Amino acid sequence: MYYGLSNFYQNHRRYVKSRDDRQLNGDTSALTSPNKDCMPYNLNNDVPIAPCGAIANSLFNDTFELFYIQDNENRTRIPLMKRGIAWWTDKFVKFRNPAGDNLTAAFEGTARPLNWPRPVYELDPKDPENNGFINEDFIVWMRTAALPTFRKLYRIILNNRDRMTPTLPRGNYTLEVTYNYPVISFEGRKRMVLSTISWMGGKNPFLGIAYITVGTICFVLGLVLLVIHYKYGNHNNNADIPN
């Protein structure tokens, strides 16, 4: 299950660098002295923000619930797995919590981002192991998209009968959305996509179009160079002046 946004970065080019990788890697000193790239989202009433920056401040926070509609009109909630949606290298290398067993104490002296309803160490109240900078929703969001229209993995759908098989039976479904994330200010759009993924990842038409376009250009250039070589390559270019 993916969520998509369009036109998000159209008027927010500064978002690309508005973060502090030292903070995200668990550097304790960076918590109280955010990078200047985070401005103006580095301080809140002179209190350092953690995580700082415009990217973190705009964290996507809509929630979704998927229900299967049975023949008797009863609804069955489809389990959505929130762990395992982030890249392994991000989860265990690039994003680390500050040292210490108590996250609340580790983030003492910092403020939450301006648009957040709760601090970073309470992002997932139901799962203490999914809090702080290693919260997987947060990690997925912080991997900055290159284009103004993008898609990010939200959850992995699990089958009720076989919880390790990410498939859905044929039938009718209802998707309930808790609307928290406004997009009117940048004329954006949101969408939800249910997709089948493989070991290579999900559907990405941009890469296919890019490969076909580059391949076509290379093929045409190859034909042009072949014609040039055939027409002019055998000419005698000897510059010696005969006696």
Kindly describe this structure.
InterPro entries: CDC50/LEM3_fam (IPR005045). The longest helix is centred in the C-terminal third of the chain and has 28 residues, at 205-232. Helix content is 24%, strand content 16%. The protein has helices spanning 21-24, 28-32, 54-57, 88-94, 103-106, 136-142, 205-232, and strands at residues 2-6, 43-44, 47-48, 63-69, 75-77, 80-81, 150-153, 156-157, 172-178, 189-193. The chain has one domain (2-201). The protein has a 3-stranded antiparallel β-sheet with strand order 7-1-10, with no helix packed on it. Strands 5-4-9 form a 3-stranded antiparallel β-sheet, with no helix packed on it. The protein has a two-stranded antiparallel ribbon with strand order 2-3. With 243 residues, the chain is of the alpha+beta class.
Q: For the CA atoms, what is the radius of gyration?
A: 25 Å
The figure for the number of domains is 1
**Overall pLDDT confidence:** 85
Taking pLDDT < 50 over at least 5 consecutive residues as the criterion, the unreliable ranges are none
Specify the overall morphology.
Answer: globular
Q: Which structural class should the secondary elements be placed in? A: alpha+beta
In short:
The chain contains 7 helices and 10 strands. The protein is an alpha+beta fold.
Name the descriptors.
243 residues, alpha+beta
